[in-house]
């Protein structure tokens, strides 16, 4: 029987709530640390904060406040900076109107890199730095797989922009890429190819820049699936990843974790039965689970999540197949009615999420349990 | 050219943010008021708070604090009660462990109804009321369309449960149904049938109860699509609806509003181009838009939302076709590359949401504008 952890204290808070199994989270963090350590002595991990987004988790991600972290919003950076964290990459293409907030972070002594991939952004950043007499460190985003944004590593534009930054009032710091398409890999070979493409793009870009006499101090790659691969990391300075801390059904579908590695779940109560159809109705709808249907793109669609009992036993053949605002509908995946007598009204269940980043985002607080069933409440940083 | 409202102040806050056109919202609220008023003198509207979930909006929904409101969480009820609102229905099947919170609301003088549809819940509520010497008002949930939960109006169980409540320590207050399937209607005839089925179920149930000598003070129906229909409301005491306040692309797809009636939108900035594919990259991903893909079930799938410029002109043939955590990807719906030169980096756009309830849920604050471009910030009530 597939077993996720039992959380004896799941009876405590009102449902629905987001629970983290802290020991599983710590094991996941240690796994990544060991994995990267085994591949290279010189590559650092720059964990992506966007999954957990809580100050309470930061000490587990970083050994001290000067260690590198990635953020998806300036809000995260500001909250981290306020308590002393000082080494950040804001990994979403910069909008010019956000530059005063970056400047304020620099003024606090934070080494905050921004990223960009086009001429308009380079001009805006150089102009802003000149006008305000500050020096913002910039990474150029590379496109390694056609996923979203970035410049191809072999594009002449890369050299042009880097030189403009180097010669302008900003500081050119390096290159950064993200193998977003790795989320659509279906087997180990595809995954390895995605990881290889990511490091190849970063290496090629940095080499081309150095060949032109442009220093490229940081060479950053990463996504959880590619970070957990074993391609050669020579020439790479750091690896970014976020969802490895908690894992989820998408990562399980890609094959980079087991169900027992999923550290976050939504605890819910059975509040009704549809006896005619053989459905369970619960109090965890998309407000608690998110509307993310990420597993639909993997080898197995798990609806809005898989179901375990409160003791941690995975209930094979069940899933959350519908989610309304405050209602979830649990059905059998084979379409037959489930035996509702097995699930009395009031029964607590645990739902494993499709996409941990999305499910965490629905919760202001996380209920955190360890293997002694000690209980903490962690608060999420919200907004932009 | 289809036009939604221009929000001149969209240049003000940092993007992404949630904007409400207050005048459109007020027009929507007035439309429902007039519509129900024209159908019956005796039917009241019990607005569903779950869409807006902000105390700032409550005075526009209710003429005074004793007027009826529906909530989707006890958290909403508690926040409303703290400032004096006193007439609520918590319209999600009750879990026994939530009863002390209901009791606390009663102790504050709030007339807070709960809903249920099964024997275990009736026993739990009667027992709780007896043990704690309180009287909780209970509505029995009816199933009018096989959507989710509830008891069929012709089921013998209805009488059994109502009598147990009447004879027990709780108070039986009436019946409530919700035509959830109306969200899947494709034409006016289906919509009318859904509305008819909803009132038919409520009327039949209340009649059967009265025939058995069981008082049925409240007979509650509602969903935005059915509330806006024109079926005969005789025998109905109240209509519930929520998303009519803001409307969205699902409601547009069902045919109960125009695009210009959609009062909520996410304001975003163009932060990149994928020139090769002809895509715009923006800073509104699913963290700002939600992952809701509700329009996929209507006659026209609008991806993660339709796109208007900051002046309010709908950009025909564009949609948000992909959403990552903090990135949206805007493409042409015909698959051809769009002319990225028309959308300089830094351009602000407005995204019309699939499902307003879901998009609002991603934001702690709403930026509210009126036709004088006066600006307010409303705070959302969060959690359960």
From TrEMBL, chains A, B:
Pfam families: Ala_racemase_N, D-ser_dehydrat
Keyword check for Transmembrane: no
GO terms for biological process, alphabetical: D-serine catabolic process
Parts forming coiled coils: 185-212
Domain of life according to the entry: Bacteria
D-serine dehydratase-like domain segment(s): 263-370
Keyword Thylakoid set for record: no
InterPro entries: Ala_racemase_N, D-amino_acid_metab_enzyme, D-ser_dehydrat-like_dom, D-ser_dehydrat-like_sf, PLP-binding_barrel
A GO term for molecular function: D-serine ammonia-lyase activity
Keywords: Coiled coil, Lyase
Family per similarity comment: Belongs to the DSD1 family.
Name of the molecule in the record: D-serine dehydratase-like domain-containing protein
Organism listed in the record: Idiomarina xiamenensis 10-D-4
Lineage: Bacteria, Pseudomonadati, Pseudomonadota, Gammaproteobacteria, Alteromonadales
């Amino acid at each position: 029987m597939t077993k996720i952890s039992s959380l004896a204290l799941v009876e405590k808070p009102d449902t629905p709530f987001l629970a983290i199994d802290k020991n599983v989270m710590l094991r996941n963090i240690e796994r990544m640390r060991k994995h990267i350590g085994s591949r290279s002595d010189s590559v650092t991990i720059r964990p992506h904060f966007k999954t957990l987004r809580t100050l309470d988790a930061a000490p587990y991600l970083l050994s001290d406040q000067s260690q590198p972290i990635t953020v998806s919003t300036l809000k995260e950076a500001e909250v981290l900076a306020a308590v002393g964290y000082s080494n950040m990459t804001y990994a979403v293409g910069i909008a010019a109107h956000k530059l005063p907030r970056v400047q304020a972070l620099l003024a606090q002594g934070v080494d905050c890199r921004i990223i960009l991939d086009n001429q308009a952004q380079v001009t805006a950043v150089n102009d802003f730095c000149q006008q305000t007499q500050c020096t913002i460190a910039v990474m150029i985003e590379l496109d390694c797989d056609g996923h979203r944004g970035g410049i191809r590593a072999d594009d002449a534009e890369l050299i042009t922009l880097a030189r403009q930054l180097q010669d302008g009032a900003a500081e050119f710091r390096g290159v950064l890429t993200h193998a977003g398409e790795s989320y659509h890999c279906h087997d180990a070979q595809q995954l390895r190819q995605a990881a290889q493409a990511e490091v190849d793009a970063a290496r090629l870009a940095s080499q081309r820049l150095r060949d032109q006499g442009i220093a490229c101090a940081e060479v950053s790659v990463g996504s959880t699936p590619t970070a957990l691969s074993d391609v050669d990391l020579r020439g790479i300075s750091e690896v970014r990843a976020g969802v490895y801390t908690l894992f989820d059904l998408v990562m399980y579908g890609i094959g980079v974790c087991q169900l027992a590695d999923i550290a976050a779940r939504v605890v819910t109560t059975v509040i009704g039965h549809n006896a005619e159809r053989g459905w369970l109705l619960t109090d965890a709808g998309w407000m608690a689970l998110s509307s993310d249907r990420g597993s639909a793109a993997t080898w197995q669609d798990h609806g809005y999540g898989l179901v375990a009992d409160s003791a941690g036993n995975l209930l094979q053949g069940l899933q959350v197949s519908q989610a309304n605002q405050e209602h979830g509908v649990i059905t059998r995946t084979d379409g037959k009615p489930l035996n509702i007598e097995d699930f009395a009204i009031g029964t607590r269940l645990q739902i494993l999420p499709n996409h941990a980043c999305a499910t965490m985002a629905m919760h202001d607080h996380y209920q955190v349990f360890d293997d002694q069933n000690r209980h903490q409440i962690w608060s999420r940083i919200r907004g932009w």
